[in-house]
Amino acid sequence: MNDDRRSRRQWLLMLVTIPGEKPALRMRLWRRLKASGAGVLRDGVYIGPRQPEVAALFGTQAEELVAAGCTAQLLTVDGESNDFTHLFDRSGEYRDLLAEIGSAAKALKASNAKKLEGKAAALRRLFESIVSRDFFPTALQQEARSAVDELSERILRTLSPDEPHAALVRIQRLEKKEYQGRTWATRAKPWVDRLASAWLVRRFIDRKARIVWLKDPKKKPAKALGFDFDGAEFSHVDDKVTFEVLLHSFNLQGDVALGHVGSIVHYLDIGGIPTAEAPAIETILRGMRGRCGDDDALLVGASKLFDDLYAGLQADRP
After folding, report:
1. Is the pTM of this model over 0.85?
2. Which one is the CATH code of 3-87: 3.50.50.60, 1.10.20.140, 3.30.70.240, 3.30.70.2190?
C-alpha cells in the first residue's frame, strides 16, 4: 500500500466500559460491530477507518451504551504512525468464497442446476456481506464478483439454454399508440427479465396486452410481438437486457423509479453493478416460481411484487 495513503488515513476508536452485570449488552455490541466489519484492538476497544458510515455506526452505538448506563468515548487516531489495515484484511474470506464458487461450478450439470441456483444466490449474498465489510478492497473483490456472476450466468444458461444473445443494433423509438391490444410472446418458464418485461408492457405500454408463453420461440404466432429471445422484436441489445430495451424503445427511461427497477433486473439477469434490493427480489421470485402452478399465475404474483417495488421507489424519491 502507498505510504502517502497510509499517512493520510485516520482511524476512529470507540472505547467502551460495560458493567459485568450486563453481559447481554456486551455480546449484542460485539455482534453488531463484528457484522459491520469493525476491528477489535482489545476488550472494549473497537476501531474502524474514519469514514462516514463507521462514524455513524460508532456514534449510534455510543449513544445506546451511555443511555444504558455504560461509558463510551470516540477518539480519532492519525494513521501516520499507526497502521491497522491488517485488522480489515478480507482476503481469506474472498479465497474461501472463491473455493465454494469453484466447487459449485465444477458440480454444475443439467440435473442439479435448479438446486445450484439457490446455492448461487446464497453465495452472492455472502459476497455482498463481505463487500459491505471490506473497507480496503483489493483485486480479490473483483475476482470474486466476476466468479459469482459467471456462476449465475452458467446456471441460467443451463436452465434456459435458449437465453437470448445481445444484438448490436440501434434501439428505435416507438409510439405506444401503435402497440395497443397486441399479443406479446416470450419463452415459457419465465425468470426476472421476462417477468419484469411482461409487467412493464401491461403496466406502461399496452394495458390490454395478452401474454403468450412459448415452449418453442420458433413457433411464435405470426402477429405476436416477441420479447426476450433471439429474433424477437424486443430482446437484449448491446449491454441492455430486454426490460431496459423496452424502456428506451417506448421513451420510458426518464422515469427514475423504472430506471432503478431496470438496474435490479439487469443485475439479476446478467450481473454487473449490484443493487441493494436485488437479493430480496431474487429470493421472492424464486419462492413464487416454486409455488405457482403455471406461468400466468407466476406473472400475476410477480406483477404485484413489481407494482409494490415501483411504488416504493417512487416514494423514496426526494
Report:
1. no
2. 3.30.70.240
